[in-house]
Amino acid sequence: xxxxxxxxxxxxxxxxxxxxxxxxxxxxxxxxxxxxxxxxxxxxxxxxxxxxxxxxxxxxxxxxxxxxxxxxxxxxxxxxxxxxxxxxxxxxxxxxxxxxxxxxxxxxxxxxxxxxxxxxxxxxxxxxxxxxxxxxxxxxxxxxxxxxxxxxxxxxxxxxxxxxxxxxxxxxxxxxxxxxxxxxxxxxxxxxxxxxxxxxxxxxxxxxxxxxxxxxxxxxxxxxxxxxxxxxxxxxxxxxxxxxxxxxxxxxxxxxxxxxxxxxxxxxxxxxxxxxxxxxxxxxxxxxxx
Length: 290
What we know:
Blueprint (H helix, E strand, L loop, with lengths): L2 H16 L6 H18 L5 H25 L22 H19 L4 H16 L3 H4 L3 H10 L1 H10 L4 H24 L1 H7 L4 H5 L3 H22 L4 H21 L4 H9 L1 H15 L2
Helix pairs in contact: 2-3, 2-8, 2-9, 2-15, 3-4, 5-8, 7-9, 9-12, 9-14, 12-13, 13-14, 13-15
């Protein structure tokens, strides 16, 4: 293999890492709430075209979000143990290359949205603003995790708009559930970097909460499960749905069991396990709407 081929291969690998192609959990955490909303809005299997549009859109927007996050954090990532090997932090890609990738993916995602309806298109514009502005919050506020919850849940009203051309009350209740859940699991994630963030001058909800972090996460997760129970009550779901919520609650309790001492590795495991929480809730929706 010649030098040019090595450089090209290295660039491809760096781009794959930049969009977190090697770390699909984040995509799943964004995908599950979108699928919840599509199934609930359609009261069963959603139209295939919308399922494909939203699934592809989730991958594109999550990847684009990771790119703009790394671009905004070029000053921070080299100072944090977990992120110092990211492509921009180690100099494998330039800021201009990252911005080009971001714009390209957002344009493709917007092209997909254009195949839906006017309300969904308008909502997607607000979603784009959320994606672009989120990474800069950790410089100025202690609540980037809450803002991420809004951004990660924006696919919920978009899904209802695409299916029903309106956003009913139940959509906002589901949005609230996801907001609480996302803020909770991203606080686990922030606890991994808390010491490094303090040294670098970055802010997070984990820093703001201090020793109250576990209590706050527990309250948010309880609110998440309660909100989902209210959704089930609104739609008169059967026992199977509530069993899935209970199983999700068991996974959440396991998170506290393994991460009670706040060790970095354990907080990361607690964060990762939320992919199974999302899956269990999705199964609950599918079975309840059969």
